[in-house]
Amino acid sequence: MNFRHKCLNSCTAGAIHLVFCEEFMINIPKGTKDVLPAQSYKWQYIEDCARQVARQFNIKEVRTPVFEHTELFARGVGDTTDIVNKEMYTFLDKGNRSITLKPEGTAGVARMFIENGLASSPLPMKSFYITPCYRYERPQAGRLREFHQFGVESFGAGTPAADAEIISLAHAVFRYLGVQNLTLEINSIGCPECRKKFQEALKAYFESYREQLCDTCKSRLERNPMRILDCKSPVCSEIAAGAPKILDYLCDDCRAHFDAVQKYLQAMDIAFTVNPTIVRGLDYYTRTVFEFVSSEIGAQGTVCGGGRYDGLLEELGGKPMPACGFGMGIERLLLLMEAQGVPFPEPKKCDVYLVSMGEAAQVEAAALAEQLREEGLSAQFDTVGRGLKAQMKYADKLGAAYTVVLGDAELESRRVNLKNMRDGTQTELDLDDFVGAFQSIVLREALAALDTSDLDEADISTILGGVQN
Ligand SMILES: [Zn+2]
Ligand SMILES: [Zn+2]
């Protein structure tokens, strides 16, 4: 396709349009966001913390495709859900296969687990992922069409301890990041057996309000009355407030399981409240469900949601096996951290900027930068051909800790002045031993910082992380 002759604004100017039409600009699709260079360190910080916590729980990362066969989500998310019915990015590929961009992370990991025979690996098998997800929703703060999740799935452990551990993992991520004021709400939605009685009671209850329910809920009444409890329409949610509560219908085993989850959480000193209105109206969700909720980021207050889904693997054609997990929305977490003024550690800046004057010096600077980078330092030289002043200005913008000027005189004498940009002090160094000498200066500074022992937790974990890597 020749874009030069195709006008996106349907004007008739053709190729000239590119030059003259100010509106000729391809914008980002609605509901998506760029992560700009000045912001990416916040993402990296959150992701690094999540990885660090996962490591503490002995959990390995997995990566599954961004797209899967549509059938996986129809079965693995549930074809009575809004996600599957209204929100999926589904298309036919060139081979006429129905493909869907993943609307959530669990189904793909469950598919991976079954397809690769991981049921015969040491169990429980816990894994985590950081992935983009796609849902066609009305965008608002904290709700995008492309969003990102940190998720954890655990296969092969059916005990209350497994639920509590998964919850404690999410809790640990929030604690590690320094996020405040999150409420952990938990509930049990029972097993298929006790839920049958609950569904009947729900159906009878909502039947008496049938005429007032929204059209979607009228059809939910037949297919899955539990989903009415999730309806966002004010009328439906008012009716739902008086509906029977699942906790009153739990069988003895489910009751004991739920009590034990609470016992573990108490033992771990993780505060929670029981909220009987949290439901996941899908057949394979069982027993524990939970959410971490904030009141500080508007209506989209759920930062993390998860639970137990003992029926999922079987639903997808695998052996029956207990499973639990959660998904944490990174955009919402970021919003919340910014709203709370949680500090993000500044990214490491440029160690040294090599200012060069003249072509010979520029070549020398390039060689020096290469050697410094080989030693793990961050170095930059001029690749634009700027003058001295402009290079210094750029070095300043980069936040370079040191600068050194290379000109004909320095090349001749093989001596250079290293300037500390923070305090302006200068140190004369031998150009031919520059890398070694500079390295020991950087190392001495790092040790001095250790000595003053004003390190905060983030510094220490950076140092420890560096050692462990
Ligand atoms: Zn039960
Ligand atoms: Zn409704």
Let me know the number of strands: 16
Chemical compounds bound to the protein: zinc ion
Tell me the major beta sheet.
8 strands, mixed
Structural class: alpha+beta
CATH architecture of the largest domain: 2-Layer Sandwich
Terminal residue distance: 47 Å
How many helices does DSSP assign?
17
Spans of at least 5 consecutive residues with low confidence? 1-6, 465-469
User: How large a portion of the residues is in β-strands, by DSSP E?
Assistant: 15-25%
Shape field = elongated
Domain count: 2
- Identify the CATH homologous superfamily of the largest domain: Bira Bifunctional Protein, Domain 2
For the largest sheet, list the strands in their spatial order.
1-5-6-11-10-9-7-8
User: Per CATH, what is the topology of the largest domain?
Assistant: BirA Bifunctional Protein, domain 2
Radius of gyration, taken over Cα atoms and rounded to an integer in Å: 29 Å
Assembly context of the chains: single chain
Question: CATH class of the largest domain, please?
Answer: Alpha Beta
The averaged pLDDT comes out at 90
Helical residue percent? 40-55%
